[in-house]
Amino acid sequence: xxxxEQARATGQPFRAVVNEALRRGLAPTSSERTPVAxxxxxxxxxxxxxxxxxxxxxxxxxxxxxxxxxxxxxxxGRDRP
Length: 81
Fold this sequence. Notes:
Blueprint: H1 3-10, H2 14-26, H3 50-73
Helix pairs in contact: 1-2
């Protein structure tokens, strides 16, 4: 039953119904949960250096920022060599 419907059916405020649903959902369960087995795979060495790639992205963003601000200051490009 949807929370709005439950609030209408029980006459409780919507907020009270939501809080009760959250309490029930977050309450600890009494049953033991079985651990999940995950299969891992060796992916090898990374193909690209993440640090270098981050630096390149930063360089491109700085160049773009400088170009945009230069265009805003001189839209016609008259003052550029």
